[in-house]
């Protein structure tokens, strides 16, 4: 626990040196994503271009609510979201909007899905996602005022991917019960192990039943930006809407999330209110009418500059090195008495074999502490009713020595629990 400076403003404004001293106190207690042992979450070190663009964005203080408040930046957002949607396979005329985080992108997608399927006035409906989908899906439906039993979580297979046969059965059961299926949320990159749901077969069920397909690619969709990694996240082109979070791996400063749609005009049809205190939009609609947010920062600037700094080669290299680190750690942990949960991306979770859930929880607590003492931070998700340790390999500063140290600490901790 670090010391926090005083929070309330004093009667007189403080001189610069006092402000800097106070700022230092806050910075001393901040989480440090640049540390080579920062492996716990999907919060990588920031790219320099993205940091610079964030500062410039603050200085410009433009507002993405309306074009007259952000003439060039509104156009940049439209162009970049269109480019991103096309690059990820959504086709000609696709596009979207930037949102402050993946939870908001998922919420807006489901609001559009409800409007587009003509189910605005119904509460008796179904939404399907896998048991490993992110909690923001349930949160979105709650915010939309839908009862909790609307969301039906489908089981996953041994690789953590939504079970297509179980989904097909769930569709048939909903039909027999007279419940329309508003949407299926497929995940491209699940939160704990980075699994990719079978999007093509989910899409064909959605087409058959007239349901919306939203792909939550907050973690995985960026892999489709690189020709050499696209095959890891196939069939994104089948999505009606797609969430992508460049903040999670590409080093774009928070927040950076996009909601992309095959038909971006659905956004203004759904969220448009008119802005009677603004000049009309030069295009179809103002940014503030294309989503839930009104006043918005120009988050697009840091995404655009960050991607330009990386270039196609930099993006591909960043993705490859994240996967290589995961696969190296995997090879170090495989000989140990662990159950590994991973997928094709850069996430790896593990738990000891042969322990009760209570003993696995104690082991995870103790081992996480030992790892912290060795300057390595992992997270401790509860997955399938059992505590795991999870390593996210998106930090380019993590080297071989950190991975070897990690495996050694885990191995010692397993030996200790075997001795006990
Ligand atoms: C798969 C997935 N979707 C959505 C989200 C939510 O994103 P955010 O934290 O930006 O709201 C997360 C967060 O980790 C996630 O893992």
Describe this structure in words.
With 420 residues, this protein is of the alpha/beta class. The chain folds into two domains: 51-307, Type I PLP-dependent aspartate aminotransferase-like (Major domain) (Aspartate Aminotransferase, domain 2, 3-Layer(aba) Sandwich); 313-419, Alpha-Beta Complex (Aspartate Aminotransferase, domain 1). Helix content is 40%, strand content 13%. The chain contains eleven helices and twelve strands. The chain has helices at residues 16-28, 48-60, 71-87, 102-116, 136-143, 164-176, 199-209, 265-271, 300-333, 357-373, 400-419, and strands spanning 95-99, 126-130, 151-154, 181-187, 212-217, 241-244, 257-261, 338-342, 347-352, 382-383, 386-387, 389-392. The strands form three sheets. Strands 1-7-6-5-4-2-3 form a seven-stranded mixed beta sheet, with helices on both faces. The chain has a three-stranded antiparallel beta sheet with strand order 8-9-12. β4, α7 and β5 (212-217) form a beta-alpha-beta unit. It is globular. It binds pyridoxal-5'-phosphate. The site of pyridoxal-5'-phosphate has 15 residues, from α4.
């Amino acid at each position: 626990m670090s010391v926090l400076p005083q929070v309330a403003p004093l009667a007189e404004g403080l001189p610069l040196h006092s402000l800097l001293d106070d700022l230092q106190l806050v910075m001393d207690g901040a989480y440090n994503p640049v540390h080579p042992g920062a492996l716990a979450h999907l919060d990588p070190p920031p790219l320099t271009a993205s940091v610079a663009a964030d500062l410039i964005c603050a200085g410009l203080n433009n507002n993405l609510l309306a074009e007259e408040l952000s003439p060039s930046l509104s156009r940049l957002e439209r162009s970049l979201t269109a480019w991103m949607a096309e690059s990820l396979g959504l086709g000609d005329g696709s596009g979207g909007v930037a949102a402050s985080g993946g939870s908001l992108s998922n919420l807006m997608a489901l609001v559009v899905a409800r409007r587009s399927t003509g189910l605005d006035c119904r509460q008796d409906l179904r939404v399907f996602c896998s048991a490993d989908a992110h909690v923001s899906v349930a949160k979105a439906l709650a915010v939309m005022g839908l009862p909790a039993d609307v969301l039906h979580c489908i089981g996953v297979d041994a690789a953590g991917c939504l079970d297509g046969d179980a989904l097909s059965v769930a569709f048939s059961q909903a039909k027999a019960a007279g419940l329309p299926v508003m949407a299926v949320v497929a995940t491209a990159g699940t939160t704990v192990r980075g699994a990719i749901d079978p999007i093509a077969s989910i899409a064909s069920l959605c087409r058959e039943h007239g349901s919306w397909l939203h792909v939550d690619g907050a973690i995985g969709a960026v892999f489709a930006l690189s020709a050499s990694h696209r095959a890891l996240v196939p069939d994104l082109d089948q999505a009606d809407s797609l969430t992508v979070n460049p903040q999670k791996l590409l080093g774009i400063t928070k927040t950076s999330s996009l909601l992309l749609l095959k038909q971006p005009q659905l956004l203004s049809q759904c969220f448009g209110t008119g802005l009677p205190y603004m000049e009309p939009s030069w295009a179809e609609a103002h940014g503030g009418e294309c989503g839930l947010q009104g006043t918005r920062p120009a988050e697009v600037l840091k995404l655009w500059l960050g991607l330009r700094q990386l270039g196609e080669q930099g993006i591909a290299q960043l993705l490859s090195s994240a996967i290589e680190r995961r696969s190296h750690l995997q090879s170090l942990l495989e000989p140990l008495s662990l159950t590994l949960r991973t997928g094709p991306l850069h996430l790896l979770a593990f738990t000891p074999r042969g322990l009760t859930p209570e003993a696995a929880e104690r082991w995870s607590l103790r081992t996480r502490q030992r790892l912290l003492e060795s300057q390595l931070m992992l997270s401790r998700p509860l997955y399938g009713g059992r505590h795991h340790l999870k390593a996210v390999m998106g930090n380019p500063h993590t080297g071989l020595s950190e991975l070897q140290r990690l495996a050694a600490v885990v191995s010692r901790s397993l030996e200790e629990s075997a001795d006990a």
